[in-house]
Every structure is written in structure tokens, then in C-alpha cells.
Specification:
By secondary structure, this protein is an all-beta fold. The protein has a single domain (about 10-80), classed as OB fold (Dihydrolipoamide Acetyltransferase, E2P) (Beta Barrel). Helices cover about 0% and strands about 50% of the residues. Strands 1-2-5-7-6 form a 5-stranded mixed β-barrel. Strand 3 (about 30) and strand 4 form a beta hairpin.
């Protein structure tokens, strides 16, 4: 059985100015292999929001999917926490 696992990330919506698209910033912390300092990486992903229901500041869960446009390769699965 050839079952593929899709990557799932949780991040904060930093922009929702586009139609059916949001920009999600995912923070990842890891310890530097040589120096031992904790490093923060915050890549930004373009995610498909079919219902235009995400607002800036929302905590969302995104999942990898097929390419939907030039930059969109993720889709919003659920809104974990709404912004105040």
C-alpha cells in the first residue's frame, strides 16, 4: 500500500489581502549543531483559503498539497484559534 504522508504545520496568518490566499508564518526553533544557541527560523507559506475565513493573527493548521499556483503549495486545514 503506497500511502504518502503530507506535511502539516501550524502558524500565524500574517496577511490575507489576496483572494482565497493567506500568508502563514511558521516559527521553528532548533539548537545550532556547533554553537548550541537556539535559532529561530520563520518561513512564510502561501496557503489556499477557499472560504476567505482567515483573518490576520489567526493560528491555523496548514497541509501540503499539489501546486495550486506559482507560489501556493499549502492549504488551510483548520483555524485553531481566532485572533481577538
Amino acid at each position: 500500500m503506497n500511502e504518502t504522508r503530507r506535511k502539516v504545520r501550524t502558524g500565524v496568518v500574517v496577511s490575507n489581502k489576496m483572494d482565497k490566499t493567506v500568508v502563514v508564518q511558521v516559527e521553528r526553533r532548533y539548537r545550532h549543531p556547533i554553537y548550541g544557541k537556539v535559532v529561530r527560523k520563520t518561513p512564510r507559506f502561501y496557503a489556499h483559503d477557499a472560504k476567505n475565513e482567515c483573518q490576520e493573527g489567526d493560528l491555523v493548521k496548514i497541509m501540503e498539497c499539489r501546486p495550486l499556483s506559482k507560489l501556493k503549495r499549502w492549504r488551510v486545514v483548520e483555524i485553531v484559534k481566532k485572533a481577538q
